[in-house]
Write a structure and sequence with these properties.
heterodimer, A: 389 residues, 2 domains, 16 helices, B: 450 residues, Ubiquitin-like (UB roll), six-stranded mixed β-sheet, 11 helices, 21% strand
Chain lengths: 389, 450
């Protein structure tokens, strides 16, 4: 590694101010710090620092997503196979390979588009490149249907990074979760590719070689139509062998990710816990007043359905767009849970309520924090008055 | 036993290099210095010049903003240099020790027989007044104020901190005399806060005229700011004074013998010290006499104070006015290949994202590397884990960054000091320089309010 370090030291001056590649300084720095943790030392204040940094934080989140990615790839292949040729059995590896070929390009497009924009903005601003997109870039492929055209992924990613994040000042300043912004953009701009019964399984939109009478409807869509009997068994929904967006189907994979996030302390247990609690309570309320079939499906099944678990674990916990105060986090998560199930059950036009619930609460998070902090201020003022009296 | 206050949110950083409980006499230092930069809100005016002969207790400089508060020499000898920094700011006044220990005589008196004004006058004259500091702002106390209470923290919870019970041993009388003098300065209570985890020294438990409070829990439970917050929180307009135990003893000596005697016991700590021990030392003495030949190889960081709040000095630097600890740790000027991706068995982190959590009992050798780049705030809820006051730390920091005086006040800036935020700075994923931001906020507040 010394040779590599020497080489970097040698070319470094070209990228510094006045060097011939001055314009690529941010890019150079991003790669340099990716390869080597810099030699900077503390100068004032605390002399030692915790080993945790932003790169580590982000990489932990990406690692936590790996189970969902791997399962998603397999499931894409498996679903396609079930739709086209269910008589012939194929191995797990074959399914995975089929899915990999379809999913990998989406991941590449998402990363290349997003990182290119991030690098440009960092250079223009004279900042270091932020690591935030490492996570967003992986989340975007996981929340889209497999047959979404690659150019749409690129456009949505660009929209999310520029309008969702950079106009507010970059990572740490954004109001909306970038990955969800990308999904919402696709959902409203190209609804034909984002909703309905034909988008969730590869090849269904073209309709070639599909088994007669095969339905690619997600369990959620079936439930929304009142067709509760057609829903797959609960264990399939838990393990994730159902149609849906690439990474969201397996509650098990998501739970493994949640365990990693919680154990390392990177994800907020307050948000995860309260989101699930909110969803469960709303489900129970619907059960109590059930007037149709959808309202009467067991409350806990809601937590396996659609992207609820995925949203609660990877999206709602985004620390930048969630509530920042501990008390606020409970409220924020709880309301996401309530709203997600409410939108899902009451408004059949948007069977996937989680996305909208999280985006809505992203907008409200600063307000929640404001009132929590205001409460603290009032207490302090009250204390001063008691003293004075 | 009085009420025990349990501090839950905090952190004890497991560092290597705790001092063995043996007190050694340090050989006499050749140079001593008094550093105006140890005090906040100073506008230094020199009264001595290079070449002047001084006794122990002869004034060296005073603060133009508080002309009655003067700073005196800890040793007899000759003023040899005045070191200045940027914009000719005075950093330190250096005195060469003549080893004669000629003391200025301020006259021995029994503090319990004296009036408040006389006590103040005597302490001011001797140059011991700066040991009394105030909250808010952590500046030297204003002799004209009447504090609502005085706080003495009788234990230090910082990493590798000295054991106060050991360093005050045998000083019962001086400590009591110091308390008697302080008692005259406030109409309120003198809070003496001890650690509830073990029976504290008799010097503290037998002290009269104080309210003994027990604290338990991780750092910052020993920080006086945290103790004030739990016992007698500061509202707008309040003033609380605080003094360190060894300085109470020095006040005691002033009344007992009539001299300015600021000798103390300090701990020499840190992973790079060959034999971490306690030393009999003097405020402002050069640390050369204790570190020379007693540290390991390599580029080192010498800190007067602890790793969280201490000041960087060099191997011949001087002990800070308020410090009773010297820490030596390795510098971290190296590149680490893919450091952020390694399992990190040897890296200390409060998050469990490094594999070092496998070994819980381990003590670490932590260097000064920043271990990452500075970023905008992304992760939330970190500071709250190590900040035990009922204050929203991140919100307060942000209020300071936008210089919103009113909001800072509402969020409780009067109650905090930079040292209370030291752990926040340590664990910050975004590597934010929290302490200097807090100091900026406090300075801003002080200027606004004066």
């Amino acid at each position: 590694m010394n040779a590599l370090r020497k080489y970097i030291n040698k070319i470094k001056p070209h990228f510094e101010k006045g060097g011939k590649y001055e314009k690529l300084q941010s890019t150079f720095e991003a790669f340099e710090t990716l390869l080597f943790v810099p030699n900077k030392v503390t100068t004032q204040g605390t002399h030692i620092r915790d080993a945790m940094d932003m790169k580590r934080t982000m990489i932990i989140v990406v690692i936590a997503m790996v189970p969902a990615i791997l399962f998603g790839m397999w499931n894409v292949g498996y679903q396609h196979h079930m739709a086209t040729n269910p008589e012939v059995t194929i191995t797990i590896l074959q399914s995975f390979w089929e899915g990999f070929k379809l999913v990998f390009p989406i991941i590449v497009v998402s990363y290349v588009t997003g990182l290119a924009i991030e690098f440009i903005f960092a250079q223009v601003r004279g900042h270091e490149v932020n690591e935030g997109f490492l996570v967003s870039g992986m989340l975007i492929p996981l929340v889209v249907p497999v047959d979404v055209p690659l150019w749409m992924v690129a456009v949505a990613t660009a929209f999310a990074v520029i309008i969702g994040k950079e106009v507010f000042g970059g990572t740490g300043m954004n109001i909306l979760n970038p990955a969800l912004t990308a999904r919402a953009f696709l959902f409203f701009a190209y609804p034909a590719y984002m909703s309905g019964n034909d988008v969730w399984i590869h090849g269904l939109m073209k309709g070639e070689n599909i088994v007669d009478g095969f339905s690619g409807a997600t369990p959620l869509a079936q439930a929304a139509e009142g067709n509760v009997e057609a829903m797959p068994p609960v264990q399939d929904m838990f393990f994730g062998m159902i149609p849906g967006s690439i990474g969201e189907t397996s509650t098990l994979a998501v739970l493994i990710g949640a365990a990693i996030l919680l154990y390392t302390g990177v994800g907020s247990w307050r948000i995860m816990f309260s989101t699930f609690a909110g969803g469960l309570i709303m489900g129970l309320i619907f059960n109590a007043f059930a007037v149709n079939e959808f309202m009467s499906i067991p409350a806990w099944e809601h937590l396996f359905l659609g992207g609820f678990a995925f949203g609660a674990v990877y999206m709602a916990t985004d620390p930048v767009t969630a509530a920042q105060t501990n008390k606020g986090k409970y409220i924020y998560g709880f309301l996401i849970g309530i709203l997600a199930i409410l939108i899902r059950v009451v408004n059949p036009a948007y069977p996937e309520g989680v996305m909208l619930a999280i985006l809505l609460m992203n907008v409200f998070a600063p307000l929640i924090d404001h009132y929590v902090v205001e409460g603290n201020i009032k207490k302090r003022l009250k204390r001063a008055k008691v003293k004075a009296a | 036993m009085s009420k025990v206050f349990t501090i839950k949110r905090g952190l004890d950083i497991p560092l290597k290099g705790k001092a063995e409980k043996v007190i050694k006499k340090a050989s006499d230092s050749q140079y001593y210095a008094v550093k105006p930069i140890d005090f906040h809100g100073m506008r230094t005016k020199l009264v001595s010049k290079v070449g002047d002969k001084v006794k122990v207790g002869t004034p060296l400089f005073y603060n133009k903003l508080q002309p009655s508060v003067q700073f005196t020499s800890p040793v007899s000898g000759e003023v040899v240099s005045v070191n200045r920094g940027e914009r000719r700011k005075i950093l330190e006044v250096v005195i060469e020790n003549d080893q004669k220990y000629n003391y200025e005589d301020f006259g021995a008196q029994d503090p319990s027989q004296l009036e408040r004004e006389h006590i103040i006058e005597k302490v001011l004259q001797s140059g011991l007044w700066p040991v009394i500091r105030q909250r808010p702002y952590s500046t030297v106390a204003n002799p004209e104020d009447k504090p609502k209470s005085i706080f003495i923290s009788a234990f230090d919870s910082a990493p590798l901190a000295p054991d106060y019970d050991l360093i005050v041993k045998g000083e019962n009388q001086n400590f009591q005399k110091g308390i008697n003098a302080l008692k005259k300065l406030t109409e309120g209570t003198i809070h003496l806060n001890v650690n509830a985890d073990y029976p504290p020294s008799e010097v503290f438990t037998k002290a009269k005229g104080v309210q003994l409070n027990h604290f338990t829990g991780p750092h910052p439970s020993g920080n006086v700011g945290v103790q004030i917050n739990k016992l007698d929180p500061i509202n707008q307009g309040d003033v609380v004074w605080y003094v360190y135990p060894q300085d109470v003893i020095a006040i005691g000596r002033l009344f007992d013998k009539g001299i300015y005697d600021v000798s103390k016991v300090i701990a020499l700590t840190g992973s790079e010290v060959k034999k971490p021990l306690y030393y009999r030392f003097v405020k402002g003495a050069s640390i050369k006499s204790i570190v020379e030949g007693n540290v390991k190889e390599g580029e080192l960081r010498y800190i007067s104070g602890n790793v969280l709040t201490g000041k960087k000095i060099n191997s011949e630097g001087y002990l800070g006015y308020f410090d009773d600890q010297v820490t030596v740790i390795p510098e971290g000027k190296y590149y680490e290949f893919l450091g952020w991706a390694k399992p990190g068995f040897k890296k200390y982190s409060t998050s469990r994202s490094f594999w070092s959590w496998l070994q819980t009992s381990k003590r670490y050798r932590i260097d000064t590397n920043l271990k990452g780049g500075e970023r905008a705030y992304v992760v939330s809820g970190e500071y709250e884990k190590v900040f035990p006051m009922n204050i929203y730390p991140v919100q307060l920091i942000k209020a300071i960054l936008i210089e919103d005086i009113e909001l800072m006040e509402k969020l409780g800036i009067y109650e905090v000091d930079e040292e209370d935020f030291a752990l926040c700075e340590f664990i910050c994923t975004s590597k934010t320089p929290v302490q200097s931001i807090v100091r900026r906020g406090l300075d801003l507040m002080r200027e606004e309010m004066s």
